[in-house]
Amino acid sequence: MRVARRKSAFVVEVEPSGVQWVKSSASGSDGDACVELAFCDALVLVRDSQDRSGLRLRVPVAAWRGLLGSL
């Protein structure tokens, strides 16, 4: 049985382009092993919260929804 779990998110950074990066409120304050998300056009961007200037994973929104639907 699947249980819907909704957590709130908070904005951690707004880029000059207007892209807003968010992190789940369930991440805690230590920031250990967390990722941040941003929604840009038809993509979901994912980055490591401890390496914000590092590589970013770009996932099409449809694929992201499919991933979340399979959990």
Number of domains: 1
Mean pLDDT reading: 83
Taking the sheet with the most strands, its summary is: 3 strands, antiparallel
What would you report as the Rg, rounded to the nearest angstrom? Answer: 13 Å
**Strand order, biggest sheet?**
3-4-5
Overall 3D geometry? Answer: globular
Helix content percent band: 10-25%
Unreliable stretches covering 5 or more consecutive residues: 1-5
Distance between the termini: 11 Å
Structural class, judged by helices and strands? mainly beta
The number of helical elements comes to: 1
The ordered string of helix (H) and strand (E) elements is EEEEEH
Fraction in beta strands: 35-45%
Question: What is the number of E strands?
Answer: 5
3D structure, described in words:
With about 70 residues, the protein is mainly beta. The protein has one domain. The chain is about 15% helix and about 40% strand. The strands form 2 sheets. It has a 3-stranded antiparallel beta sheet with strand order 3-4-5. Strands 1-2 form a two-stranded antiparallel ribbon. Strand 3 and strand 4 form a beta hairpin. The N and C termini lie close together (about 10 Å). About 5% of the residues are buried. The N terminus is likely disordered.
